[in-house]
Amino acid sequence: MTHSPLLRSDQTLFRDPDVFELTFVPEHLHHRDAQVKELAFLISPALRGGSALSAVLRGPPGTGKTTTVRRIFREVREETKKIVPAYVNCRHDHTLLAVHRSIFTQVVGYAPPSSGRYLDEIKQGIATRLHDHDAALVVCLDDADDLIVAGTYNTLLYQILRLYEKWDVRKAGVFAVTSNLDLNLGAEADPSVWSVFHPTEITFLPYSRTEIREILADRAQQGLYPRVVPKPLLDRIAGIAAGEQDIRIGIDLLRAAVLLAEKDGRRRVTHADVTAAARAVTAPALRNRAAGLSEAERALACWIAERSHDGADMASGTVFEAAQEYLPVGKTTYHEHLNALTRAGIVDLVPQKGRGREVRLRYDAGDVAAACSSPDRTCETPNSTCEIPN
Ligand SMILES: Nc1ncnc2c1ncn2[C@@H]1O[C@H](COP(=O)(O)OP(=O)(O)OP(=O)(O)O)[C@@H](O)[C@H]1O
Fold first, then answer.
1. Residue 251: which region, alpha, beta or left (left: phi > 0; alpha: psi -120 to 50)?
2. Which domains can be identified in the chain, with CATH numbers?
3. Can you list the positions of beta strands (E) in 40-134?
4. Residue from 74, 211, 247, 255 whose mutation best tests the ligand 1 pocket (most atoms within 8 A of CB)
5. What residues pair up with 55 in beta bridges, in sequence order?
6. pLDDT tens across 239-253, in order?
7. 390 or 371, which is more confident?
8. Cα–Cα distance between 360 and 314 in angstroms, integer?
9. What is the pTM of this model?
10. Model confidence at 380, in pLDDT bands (50, 70, 90)?
11. Which of 37, 196, 257, 282 is the most buried (most CB within 10 A)?
12. Can you name the residues that pair with 176 across neighbouring β-strands?
């Protein structure tokens, strides 16, 4: 067997580490052509001296909403001075003043003085610059649900969209973005806002495993030296990210696995690097999933983890029968708990030929046991038993 020569301490596997930063805007935006086209269409009237239209962008976390907007805004900035895009992260800026200060900074090119500036002066500064340059404003309010929590959503939309009523500027377009699928940002708008908002709804569906694989391959090619991550390992990373329905997990995992190889002085990522990195990267996601379960559901997850670790038969019916010895629950309750674990994304129920369904853990059994133990009930893999409350 031949071994590739070890890395010297001054060598790195990263051609460009920035490619793995979450703020990185990729050169090629995969699988978002429809959304890019729709946003470009909404902005286009402003290129012809009119006003941009508005939109609500909705999709689960890590589906490329922010990246798509940033990508379009970058192109707009490069192509024309007739449109001024302003991106506001509402997690950070959710008061009227903070949002307008952020818009001012991007429109005017420097921050307004921190003291002695009232909201109206900041708005006037924005409007004057837009008027002087005959430019149209397009604002992206990313994570706009934070504005609803802060109680500023409607006032802000009103003030941005109706800027033209007080100053001689064109009507602004607003792209409101949310990853909260239970929230309808359009419906949250008051009638006075709605009459000038009329957003087009743009949906971002989760990427499939193949799409994630392509995005990750592109990242690896841009950010790493050739052959650092063998193709089967890239497939495995894509599978883990697809299971989590979050491309970010894939990007983090790729970087973490390469860092482990680099730390060890190796030129190639191994299966063991991915396993170790996956633990670290998916642990917070798994903890979040477990936190949403009831004590009884967590106890069942723990028990399933132990059984899976021991290599026992995982057919759902067999698991139920074996569970009877330890877990005093009836069949209906057992299935309810099992369904809750499936919904939480901790187990999958995989149909088996003629044998009902197999209970399969999405994570390492030891990690599930660790995430689902509680102070009163420690789950250990292997061999310990869990007590399940009714
Ligand atoms: N289509 C894509 N092509 C290349 N990279 C992508 C694509 N979509 C997302 N990414 C990358 O995935 C990461 C997460 O994307 P992004 O922040 O745009 O998701 P989001 O939908 O805005 O998530 P959230 O709702 O949590 O803010 C970023 O690093 C981004 O560069």
1. alpha
2. 33-203 (3.40.50.300), 207-289 (1.10.8.60), 293-372 (1.10.10.10)
3. 55-58, 83-89
4. 247
5. 175, 200
6. 999 988 889 999 999
7. 371
8. 7
9. 0.80
10. low
11. 257
12. 56, 141
